[in-house]
Write a structure and sequence with these properties.
Layout (H helix, E strand, L loop, with lengths): L4 H23 L6 H12 L3 E2 H7 L4 H13 L3 E5 L5 E5 L1 H21 L5 H15 L5
Antiparallel strand pairs: 1-3, 2-3
Protein name: MarR family transcriptional regulator
Organism: Amycolatopsis dendrobii
GO molecular function, one term: DNA-binding transcription factor activity
Length: 139
């Protein structure tokens, strides 16, 4: 079968939508939305990230992420700490770190199950092809 660009783009979107639904359902017993877990994951990898950095990493606007961050601070999942100048940085709390780890176990099961029909070689090839497609244009 010969795939057109639009067919591949739609398949990627459908897989992403399937993952979003399944991950949201899996994280629900922890009291986390997917974007909240994603925030915890990114803060684990980027401690002291700014609100703007976290908004970019989680595909949110600064304004919508600010609202989300405030709710997560209120729940004791993250904390705001002073940065250089007037900057505010964010860090995981102990509770946030525990929920991130518990969520990671659930996320791993969902994604592994979703991609289980691919052999190890196919999974590596798909990852490499997506890396190529996601490369920034040099222009």
């Amino acid at each position: 079968m010969r795939y057109r660009h639009a067919d591949v783009a739609l398949a990627v979107k459908r897989l992403q939508h399937r993952h979003h639904r399944a991950l949201s359902q899996a994280l629900q017993p922890l009291g986390l939305s997917l974007v909240q877990w994603d925030t915890l994951r990114h803060l684990a990898n980027h401690p002291d990230a700014s609100l703007h950095d976290l908004a970019v990493l989680t595909f949110q606007t600064d304004q919508s992420f600010g609202t989300l961050a405030a709710r997560m601070v209120d729940r004791g999942l993250i904390e705001r700490v002073p940065g250089p100048g007037r900057a505010v940085r964010h860090r995981l709390t102990e509770k946030g770190a525990e929920l991130r780890a518990a969520g990671q176990e659930l996320v791993d099961v969902v994604v592994k199950t979703s991609l289980s029909r691919l052999s190890a070689a196919q999974l590596n090839e798909l990852g490499a092809l997506l890396d190529v497609a996601l490369e920034e244009d040099p222009a």
